[in-house]
Aminoglycoside phosphotransferase (APT) family kinase protein (Streptomyces caelestis), 317 residues
Amino acid sequence: METSRSDETRPAADPWPDYFADRGHAQARRVGAGVEGVVYALGAGRVAKVWAGRPPSELIRQVYADIAAHGLPFATPEILDVQEHQGVVVTYERELPGVPMRGDSAHEEYERELPVRHKNTLLAVLRGLASVPGTDAMRRLTVQGDDRPLWQGHDRFQDALAALVARAVARNGAVLAARVPDFDAGVRRTLNALRSLPDAPVTAIHGDLVPPNIHVDTAGRPAAVLDFGFCTTAGDPAFEAAVAAAVYDMYGPHAQEHTAELTRFFAQELGYSPAALTVCQAAYALTTYDLFGPDERDGHFRWCAEQLRRNRVFGPA
């Protein structure tokens, strides 16, 4: 849930500031809202999240703790307490520092030339997360839209990801196939390529490193990473880099150029195979295409279809 968007004005009927005041937080104020619920600043470095969507499980709380305990150079979420009020889950968390690296490309037009500071910020975040070993709690997470823990029945991330692709395509793949030429053959090529990837270190994967989910300090250095949970798991850090390159600029006029440049940059700086990054980008499109809407009326669906149409692993050799 995004906590950075200023949202000082609250509806007159909002009961939550009084709720928090009754519990010793007299200065509670609404500071942001997202698809998962509403965020309130409580003071003393604490925030509260009132959940409207799926609340965090004890498992994700453990994942937060596993990551926070690793001593990264930037802050990550940490749930301090969980309460329930009239059937609504409220989490108390530490307040994360910094401001968003930049706004979402759906609402802010990005320049053609990628800022060096953004490339370096992304690189620092990727290196940091890749230093956190994957834990049992991370392996037990279920990614958004799926019905079972990603690692269930698998010993390798590459095989687990291939199985996820197969399940996701079975959901609404016929609709995607109508927008992507040679779809069935492309899925087969992607599955074969995923299963052929070599073993790799298993580290923490955020899975949704869009610019608003990365906070920076006044010098532009990464100060915090937030909104774990969408595709959070343990896995090959090359998958994280591939997705970060693809989602940095999803909707701007230079999006394709930016994805290509970041993919090359991460491959060079982090030592990942360009082909591995490309197949991971195809896997991301195939596993998230219907999570916000199952047809082309949804912007993310259209973006995933476009990703597949130009992906060199998914497309004909």
Q: What stands out?
A: Confidence is low (pLDDT under 50) at residues 1-10. The longest helix spans residues 157-177.
